[in-house]
């Protein structure tokens, strides 16, 4: 998950946050942030959500380095014109 560790470090530095400041904001020890940035540890989904919130990016950008969708691309890769929304497919409404 090298993309995540590199992206996390880049975003943190762009926002002029120290590892300690980011750690305080997301509720972990500074060593944990260091491990995330070195790629030796992965955060929980809740930590990813909190980091994305603090760094003001989407979780996709943080985890995958994805900054934006192609113009006209659906939000749900399974959604296409004439196809039921994912929620409807789950409920059996499709």
Care to describe what's here?
By secondary structure, the chain is mostly helical. The chain has a domain at 2-64: 434 Repressor (Amino-terminal Domain) (Orthogonal Bundle), CATH 1.10.260.40. It is built from six helices and no strands. α2 crosses α3. The radius of gyration is 17 Å and the shape is globular. The chain starts with a helix and ends with a helix. Residues 76-80 have low confidence and may be disordered.
Distinctive features:
434 Repressor (Amino-terminal Domain)
Précis, in short:
The chain has 94 residues and is mostly helical. Helices cover 56% and strands 0% of the residues.
Largest sheet: none
Highest CATH level, the class of the domain at 2-64 = Mainly Alpha
Quote the CATH topology of the domain at 2-64: 434 Repressor (Amino-terminal Domain)
Distance between the termini: 36 Å
CATH superfamily of the domain at 2-64: lambda repressor-like DNA-binding domains
Distinct helical segment count:
6
Uncertain parts: 76-80
Number of strands: 0
Helices and strands, with pairings:
Blueprint: H1 2-14, H2 19-26, H3 30-38, H4 45-55, H5 59-64, H6 86-91
Helix pairs in contact: 2-3
């Amino acid at each position: 998950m090298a993309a995540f560790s590199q992206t996390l470090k880049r975003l943190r530095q762009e926002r002029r946050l120290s590892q300690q400041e980011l750690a305080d904001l997301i509720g972990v020890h500074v060593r944990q942030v260091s491990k995330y940035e070195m790629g030796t540890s992965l955060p929980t989904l809740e930590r990813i959500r909190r980091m994305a919130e603090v760094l003001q990016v989407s979780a996709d950008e943080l985890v995958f380095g994805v900054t934006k969708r192609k113009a006209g691309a659906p939000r749900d890769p399974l959604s296409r014109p004439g196809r039921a929304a994912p929620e409807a497919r789950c409920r059996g409404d499709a």
